[in-house]
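Quick note —
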Amino acid sequence: MAGRFAPRTPSTRTTVRGGHVPVPGGARSLDLEHGLDLGLTLGPLRRGPGDPTFRVTPDGSVWRASRTPDGPGTLRVALRAGAVEAQAWGPGASWLLDGLPALLGAHDDPAAFVPRHRLLAASQRRRPGLRLTRTGLVLESLIPSVLEQKVTTDEAYRAWRLLVRRFGEPAPGPVPDGMHVMPEPRTWRQIPSWEWHRANVDDKRASTILRAVRVAGRLEEAAGMEPRQAQDRLELVPGIGPWTSAETVQRSNGAPDAVTVGDLHLPGIVGYALAGDRHADDAAMLELLAPYAGQRHRAARLILLSGRVPPRRAPRMTPGDIVAL
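Predicted structure written out below.
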């Protein structure tokens, strides 16, 4: 939305700490005209506590390592006295800085959401700084979403962590220890089968990722499309269905209506929160979210943030071991 962020004069400073070798980069400041919760806004981009592409440091700064159209880059974002201070390093530094407003929700319109349930009104009121991020990058959200298909989140996070650390490259700049940029498409294609198995990724998910990276350029174009068109583009790849495409465009396109269907837990959470029905299925969930058409993803996000979830009765999903299958 216009007017939400007012850019200050761009700078080309590069701050170096701890004796690191300087890396070409730059810095930028944006004045905030609204409250921004950096953790809530960028939190969906983090794939587990050990994600090598994402760090939050003790001073509250958020670090992201990304593979941009211009190459690898690292972005550091921090809130300082009503402004966003950002620095970036690497070949992708300028691209990341140019995309900073969108990343922080400049294209998002929270005012379009009108709560029709007391729970959602309260959740929205408690989190005025929530914005829906828009990275403009597809593969960095698509690949970890494929890894999350039909497995526990812990399994998927481990696979992402292992594959990025082993086949990615160190993030440019004076970054926190262990940060890496995810592999480029050609490198994903060259990962041996035994390395997928070592990361506990079955052949179905590995094959889906390999099909996706073969058409990486076409998939990245989806970041510039309307969310529904973007999902249709992604779903042309066998193995990518509505669950995976929604999880991707929520991040790459900042899609406020891309509700996740086919999820193991979300229908029951939405059903319990809005109707007391912990056994709701996708159809019931979509019916409950119908009053929020255009903003259904935001509604689901606010429900999850409310903490109102059904009591757990069934056993947790047991992690699988593809080696033993």
